[in-house]
User: Fold this.
Amino acid sequence: MTALLQVTDLKTHFFTRDGVAKAVDGVSLRLDKGEILGLVGESGSGKSVTGFSLLGLVDPPGRVVSGEIAFAGIDLVKGGEKAMRGLRGKRIAMIFQDPMMTLNPVLRVDTQMIETVQAHEKVSRATARERARQALVQVGISAPDERLESYPHQFSGGMRQRVAIAIALLHKPDLIIADEPTTALDVTIQAQILAEVQKLCAETGTALIWITHDLAVVSGLADRLAVMYAGRIVEEGPTAEIIANPIHPYTRGLIASVPHGKPHGSMLEQIKGMTPSLLNLPRGCTFAPRCPRADAACAQEPALEEKAPGRLARCVHPHGPAQMEASLS
Assistant:
């Protein structure tokens, strides 16, 4: 089956006075219709820049320097802005972490949502407004008619984020890229949004890339996980398998640092050290300076290889099932 999205060896670099920051350094991804992919990692791992690169939203001094992005058979890198203009907002939508990147502070919400609909479809203003109203209801906004006539500054931060999510859902796009969109929402509304997103993907075949550092959220949402570190994917596979048995030491460290399921008052595990500077990445395995399993073999850069059926990892000393079971007992 042909993938909806096929990313091959994507590299996005930022050219600064201090040097070249390799924010995305050889990322390859595949996403099928209706599939949900969780893209996880610490701050600075490159997950958000990956999302921006897919939509052609990387601003100078950054740019995509190489790689291929094929969406529904369309080469987005070679097609450039012209190809993106017809897809962005209609077939590919993005939900930003900061809703004010989506909303215009001087326009009413109904004006912004109606313009979004009419930019891609020839429908009446009344039809576009009704669709906007239904989208607000879908994300849990009460009194939608009143809210449509409001300005963004009249909403709370969480309410603005829900409006931004509603705008992304207007066209029932083929692909949604969500950059930590529920961070500002309370847990009740977060659960509602996650349920609506899963329902949308199941009913319409919309694919979703959910970018987050919150493993608790993505573990119940995504079909597959791709774990990023220092601009590279270090582990990829089915969500349930990765959560139960992480292969890469970095993934294992992320999961071990989550407080859920641990006795009250117990010390949390932590990953030692700091993420490396993208301007001066260590040779070989970029996680080696922080890894408890590192040795001389890690001086060579490991490839992303299949370590088990359907499980990829970039590590020469991956964890095995027996090791993980022993560590959790």
In short: Confidence is low (pLDDT under 50) at residues 322-329.
